[in-house]
Amino acid sequence: MKYRNLGPFSVSELGLGCASYWGKKHFSEQQAIRVVSAAIDQGVNYFDTGASYSGGHAEQRLGRILKHHVTDSELFISSKVGTEVGHFGRLYKNFSYQGILSSCERSLRRLGVNQLSVLFLHGPNPEDFNDHTYQALSDLKQSGKVALVGVNTFNPHIIKLTQQSQRFDVLMTDFNVFKPQQIETINQTRQMGMDVVIAGALGGALYSRQWRRISGVKSLWYWLRAYKNNRKQLQAAHYFDFLNKYPNWHATQLALAYVLNDPHFSSALVGSTSEHHIQQLADVSGRMVPNEVMIKIKQAQQQVNCT
Prior knowledge:
The protein is of the alpha/beta class.
């Protein structure tokens, strides 16, 4: 596993996103443990989650696993504030001064750690960039409960506000084969003195033929989520079908290798419910994308932009 700088930390260039189906109550805790253990065995030392992920269960699950099944203290954990789980599982926003502090304290307790490596504002709106927010984050850093602060957003306007505010250490945004334009965003952010963490590095694996096979509740859940949240990428996925045709590579490996080819971010987050899948993805670290594949990816990206 290769490592990159994230502030003062040396983190694995592949990070594990502990969210989504992995954190659901009906997903086996033992299987969730095996996924985390497999990631650590492969050299992954960066784990990201959020207070609201999986209905609030993901953060708690990761905390239980880290407490009882992990002995390595050199792990870096990030979480998020600003999105809360309300009645009947409905999400709502709370970026108030006290809301940020309370959410961070709860995350520390759930995760069983004394400090979060990074605390991200989760999907803030323009009005959330204010003195109360900045003071809360400053106080958390001063107290030692948070090492770095950042913003998690895919919105171009919010990304600009994050860059211009000069109040944050890290930007978390998306980058994958479907979104080559984000290379410019990554470069701009780094030039302004911030580190970048990539979310959605696999692009939902929508191009994978294996992903298209609906074989149970889990695969149906992922398909419905993609149809709801990533319909545009779902429609463009067939342009990248060639990723399934290369010997010694899985489609998701090639898509991840494309992302890791960019040296200007700190870590690319992936999610998984399979330890075998984690091992496959970890094998990509240090591998170069074949030139022929890189050419085809760029051609496919141009075709998508033209349709």
